User: Fold this.
Amino acid sequence: MPEHFLLDCEPVPFTPGQSVMAAAHAAGRYIPHLCWLPELTPHGACRLCTVRIGPHLAAACTTPAAAGMMVESQTAELIAQRRTMLQLLFVEGNHFCPSCERSGSCALQATAYAMGMLEPHFDPFYPERAVDASHPDMLLDFNRCILCALCVRASRELDGKNVFALAGRGLATRLVVDSASGRLADTAFSASDRAAQVCPVGALVPKRVGFARPIGQRVYDLHPIDEARSGDDDVAGPGGEALAR
Ligand code: SF4
Ligand code: FES
Assistant:
């Protein structure tokens, strides 16, 4: 008989060492997240998965599940905090959904809808960031990068390549490419790499297929993200690679 914790008053089984997020996901329960995938080491960067465990707030993706734990993930307080985090993410980069090829298959956009975000609230930073179009098959648009480090971890842990890294600290943190020129074309990166398939936003996208699937028929157009990203019903696939963009 597996041990259980309570997630929003419903029992969730877990195995020793499993995080609250991993157990919830395996049980088909959605906790909002942008920087977590089941097959990668958790990074704890986006804080979208913050839940309340008794008097404490904790990241579900890095907190080990424990028997008898009472976890709240859907309180008005948590949803409001997530909305603010999402608003900050939107203004920190250049996220212009109507002109982005990931519109409808973007986890940032879909999570914002799910949390009831109606406007960005804060003044946009409008950062000036270069686009790296050097690679023959993949485009890297730093304007849309949310620094989730999924590509960093996928390249290192699944592809064995270390193509990407996060450099700098605080507001100066940025994604960098590991080549002498700093260009993606000068790395061993391939469109068939797992790292090419995990970007939750439109920062790392394949070329020449941007609008192959029409807007209105994309995964989050058809399924709200809390349905699309729940365990075995994960129709988006980890990182959204099944989106047929
Ligand atoms: Fe995350 Fe995409 Fe930026 Fe990589 S390029 S850190 S996957 S948002
Ligand atoms: Fe837990 Fe991002 S999913 S911090």
Remarks:
- The first helix runs from residue 20 to 26.
